[in-house]
Write a structure and sequence with these properties.
CATH architecture of the largest domain in chain A: 3-Layer(aba) Sandwich
Structural class of chain A: alpha/beta
CATH class of the largest domain in chain A: Alpha Beta
Helix content of chain A: 25-40%
Radius of gyration of chain A: 21 Å
Oligomer: homodimer
Shape of chain A: globular
Distance between the termini of chain A: 46 Å
Number of helices of chain A: 14
Chain lengths: 390, 390
C-alpha cells in the first residue's frame, strides 16, 4: 500500500465524528489525543465488513486461531520473542480500565504506587480517585534524553509502596527503555515485592533498529509479578473499537486479581473490536511498516524544525510513539504553552500540566498526520513565537 | 418492512460466527441463548455502515442527541413514561458487568441478596464468585402463572440482607410483573433499606396491551434506591456489540457506586455499539413492531403445540420475552430434559438446572426464530417424546 493511500485530508478528517477533530473550532488544527490521521489497514476494514455483510452482531464464537487471546500470544512471540500464555489473558475494553482494576486489586487505599513522571494523565487521576499515593520517580534529563532514575526510585520506596506502574515505551517522553534500565526496575520490584503493571501499548511504535523489550521477558521472577496491558488500538488506530488485554505473568497473579475482579466484572469485548484486533495483529504489519516510515520522517522533520525555528523550545526526538514532548519553560510565555499555541497559533495540543507537576510549561504534540498537516502545525507555532518575539 | 425480510434462513444463520449456531453440531437446531434469528433493523445497519464508510474508528465524540445517555432517557420517556436523568447514567459493556459491580459496590461478602428464582444463571454465579448469600424468593405457581411471593420475601429477609436483584420482565418465567407485585417489592425494599438492582432488558418485549412498568417509576423513595440496568442489545438483537447502561436513581446512589467503582474502572463502550444503540432506540421501533408480531404468533403457536402434542409438559405462555419455560418433571425422563432433547430430538435448549435448584427438570426454549424453524424444533421434540412413550 502506498503511503499516500492511508493519509487522510483535512476534509476527510473533519467528516468523521472523532474527538480529535471535533474538540476545537474549525480554525484550529488538532495535534492532541493519540489518534492518527491515517485510514486503518485493509485487513482490519475487511474483517469489519465481513461482520457487517452478514449483520453478524450476535454473541460471538471466537476460539482458537480467531480468538483475541491466541492472536495476542502469537503477535508477542513474532514481534518481541515473548511467549505469553493465552490462558492468562483477561480481555478489557481499554487500558485505563485495566489500570484502575489492577490498582484496586493489588493495593489498598493509602498505599504508594511508583510512576515515572511526567505521565499519561489518566494514571494520575486513577491514583487520586482510588486514594493511592504517588511515589514520584521523575525521569532524569541527562542532557541527551530522559532516563530512568533507579537510584531515585530506591530512595523513594517505603514499606507501604506496593506497585510499579511502568509505561514502556514511555508517554509522553517517547523513551523506549533499554534493557539495563528495565533490569534495574525489575530488581527493585523483586527486592521490594512490588506488583508491576506494564503499559506496553506503544510497543509497535519503536523507531529504527531498536526493538521493544517486554518487561515480562526480563526474568521468571519479574514475569511472575508483572501484569502486561496492551492493545492494537494505538498502533493500528482503532481506539474507538475498544479492545485490549491484560496478561498475568503467573496463575497466582491472575487468581489474586480474580478474587477481587471476577472475569465477568470486567465486562466483555465487542465482536467488531475482537475481529479488528485479530486482523491487525495477524495481517496488519505491512500497513504498519508504511505508517512507521511516515512517522519516522515526521519525527525527524519535527526535531529539525524545532531546533531551527523554535528557539527556546527543548525537545528530544522520541525513540518511540508519535508524540513529541516540548519543553517551553524557557519561552517565558504569558500563559501556559497549551493556551498560547491554541490562542495564537490555532493549534490544539495537549497541555503538559495534565501530565503532572513536572509537565507544567510543556506541551505534547501528536505528529501522526500527513506531511502537509504537520508542516502547517509547525509553521503556525513558529509564526506565533516569531510574532511574540518581535 | 415485511416480516419475511428480517427472518433468516438456516443457511444464512450457519454462515454467521455467532455462538448460538456454533455451539452444537450441525444436526442440532439451536434454541438456547437469547439471540434472535432475525436480521437487525435497517437504521442500525445504516448507522454502522456510516462508521465503516469513513473508517471512523477513532476516539468518538458522542454528545447531546447522539449520546447513549440522552437516547436512553428519551426512549424510556417515550416507551414507559419514565424520565431518567442522563447525568446519572453509567455506560457499561453489558448487564452482567453491571450486576457484578453493583453487588460489589452495595454489599459485602456474606451479605444476603434477594433473587426471584429460578433465574438467569449468571446472577447465581455472581453471588457465588462474590461470596454473597442467596436469599431465595422462589416464584409461586398459582396454577395459572408464576407470581411474586411478597409474603415469602418478607419472611426470608434478615439483618444482613442488603440488596434486591429484580429481573422484570422475568427470565426465564416470562412474567411481566403487575404494579401491585412491584409495589410490594418496593415496600419491602424501603422497609428493609435494600438497594434494588432492576434488570429491565426485556422491557420492550411485553406482549399485547400490557406495558412494562419501570421499578424506578413506583415512587421517589423506591427510585432513590434503584439502579436500573438495561440495553438495546436484547430487543434489537445486537448483543455482540456490547453496549448497556446503568441508571442510578439518585446522585447519592451514584456517588456511593463511584467511590468503589470510579467511572473509568468500568471501561468504555465502543463507538459502533453506541451508534447502533442510539439508532435502535431512536429509529428501531417499526422493525421491533414487526418482530413482536412474529414473536406473539410463535408464543401462541408454542403454547398450543405444547398443550396438544407434549403431554406432561407444563408451560405458561410468557407475558414477555421470547423465552419459553418448560416444566418437564412429570415426564420422568431418563436424563435431564436438556440432555434428552439434545440427544433424542437434536434440539439445543438451555438446561433449567443452570437457573438454580428450582430449575432442575426444566428447559428454556428460545422461540425468536422463523415459523418453519420453530415448527421443526417443536416437531422434533414431540416426536422424541412420542418415540419414548411407545
Amino acid at each position: 500500500m502506498a503511503v499516500e493511500s492511508f493519509e487522510l485530508t483535512v476534509e476527510a478528517l473533519r467528516a468523521r465524528r472523532c474527538t480529535k477533530w471535533n474538540k476545537f473550532p474549525e480554525t484550529v488544527i488538532p495535534a492532541w489525543v493519540a489518534d492518527m490521521d491515517f485510514a486503518v489497514a485493509e485487513p482490519i476494514q475487511q474483517s469489519i465488513m465481513e461482520l457487517v455483510k452478514h449483520r453478524d452482531y450476535g454473541y460471538g464464537a471466537r476460539t482458537g486461531e480467531v480468538s483475541l487471546e491466541q492472536a495476542f500470544a502469537d503477535r508477542m512471540k513474532e514481534c518481541f520473542g515473548w511467549e505469553p500464555d493465552p490462558e492468562l489473558v483477561q480481555p478489557t475494553s481499554e487500558l485505563i480500565q485495566s489500570v484502575y482494576s489492577a490498582i484496586a486489586a493489588f493495593s489498598e487505599p493509602g498505599d504508594g504506587i511508583v510512576i515515572q513522571t511526567p505521565i499519561y494523565p489518566p494514571f494520575l487521576v486513577a491514583l487520586d480517585q482510588l486514594n493511592r499515593r504517588l511515589v514520584d520517580n521523575k525521569l532524569r534529563d541527562d542532557g541527551h534524553r530522559f532516563v530512568l532514575d533507579a537510584e531515585g526510585l530506591r530512595r523513594s520506596i517505603d514499606a507501604d509502596t506496593k506497585m510499579l506502574l511502568v509505561v514502556n515505551p514511555h508517554n509522553p517522553s517517547g523513551r523506549a527503555y533499554e534493557r539495563a534500565e528495565l533490569q534495574a526496575l525489575g530488581d527493585v520490584a523483586v527486592e521490594h515485592d512490588l506488583v508491576i503493571v506494564a503499559d506496553e501499548i506503544h510497543a509497535d511504535l519503536v523507531f529504527g533498529e531498536r526493538r521493544h523489550i517486554p518487561i515480562a521477558t526480563l526474568s521468571p521472577e519479574v514475569a511472575a509479578r508483572t501484569i502486561t496491558i496492551t492493545s492494537a488500538t494505538k498502533s493500528f488506530n482503532i481506539p474507538g473499537l475498544r479492545c485490549s488485554v491484560m496478561h498475568f505473568g503467573s496463575p497466582e497473579l491472575r487468581a489474586r486479581f480474580h478474587t477481587r475482579f471476577p472475569e465477568r466484572m470486567m465486562g466483555q469485548v465487542n465482536v467488531i473490536g475482537i475481529d479488528a484486533t485479530v486482523a491487525a495483529w495477524r495481517h496488519g504489519q505491512p500497513w504498519l511498516d508504511d505508517v512507521m516510515a511516515r512517522l519516522a520522517q515526521n519525527r525527524d522533520r519535527l526535531a529539525q524544525f524545532v531546533k531551527a525555528e523554535m528557539p527556546g523550545v527543548r525537545h528530544y526526538a522520541p525513540e518511540a510513539t508519535y508524540l513529541a514532548w516540548l519543553d517551553c519553560r524557557a519561552l517565558d510565555l504569558p500563559s501556559s504553552p497549551f493556551e498560547f499555541f491554541l490562542d495564537e497559533a490555532c493549534v490544539g495540543l495537549n497541555d503538559g500540566a495534565d501530565f503532572g507537576i513536572h509537565g507544567i510549561g510543556h506541551v505534547r504534540l501528536n505528529f501522526a498526520t500527513s506531511a502537509p498537516i504537520l508542516d502547517e502545525v509547525l509553521n503556525r507555532m513558529a509564526h506565533a513565537l516569531e510574532v511574540r518575539a518581535r
